[in-house]
Structure formats: C-alpha cells, structure tokens
Amino acid sequence: MAEKSKFINLEDILTKEVEQLTALKKGEIDVEKLGTIPVTAIDNSEYKQIKKDCMKMVPNGTGGMVPEIDDDKMMIRVITAAVDKDERSDFSFANKKLLDHLGVVTADEAVAKLFSPGEILYASADIQEISGFGKKAKKAQEEEVKNS
Q: pTM value?
C-alpha cells in the first residue's frame, strides 16, 4: 500500500475556495489609553508599500548611498494599516475628528500620541505575527529595544 504524501499537492489547493486561501487573520491589540482595538493582518503588497514609504537613502561614508529603514515609522505604519483595514470597527487613526481632537495632522502622529513606545513595539509585533512573520519578528524587535 502506497504511503500518502505529507506534502501539499495542486489538487489540495484547487479544492479550496479562493476566499479561504487568501483570508487574512484577525487579531486585537490592547492600548492602555484606548482599550482593545481590532486589527487585520497586512498582506504582501501592503507590507512592501509600508517598507518603501519608510525607506530613505543615506550616505554610506564613501560617496555612495545605501537604503535605511526608519523602524519606528514602520512600526507605526503597520499599526495604522492593520487598524484601518479591519471591518469590525469604524475606528481609524486617520479620522479627521480624531486628528483635530488630538491636535495632530497625521495618523502617524495620532498613534505616537496615544500609544506608549512599548505599546507601539508590541502592537506592531502582534500584527506582524498574525501577518505571518511569527515569533522571530517579535523576538528581533525585542532585541532591538534592548540594544537601543
């Protein structure tokens, strides 16, 4: 009797609905000043755009330029994207009324005002985990905080 393969095959994938294959995980983040906020995982195209938006070219010391990512900005952008796309709540950090109420202009500034630095780190790590980065991303961010 032939042993069944432990690997996925094309037929396994084709028997699943596209919505099932492309569904994004849901989660929640807790913020002391706000309470529980629902979030939805970010997908590849969103992640790439966030990363691109947070990258700048800096001199490398030898006349050339190298890309550098603003990690703090990237963490905040991950949070705003995951909150904005979650349909379980109409809350958005980009809401004009919220921005006016806080006396800020951008969603990034609203997150920075409403979250403690640790909450930004852990909320971003939680969102990255449901987005498929797993515990390695969370551990790397924790190490970065320790070393800064």
A: 0.79
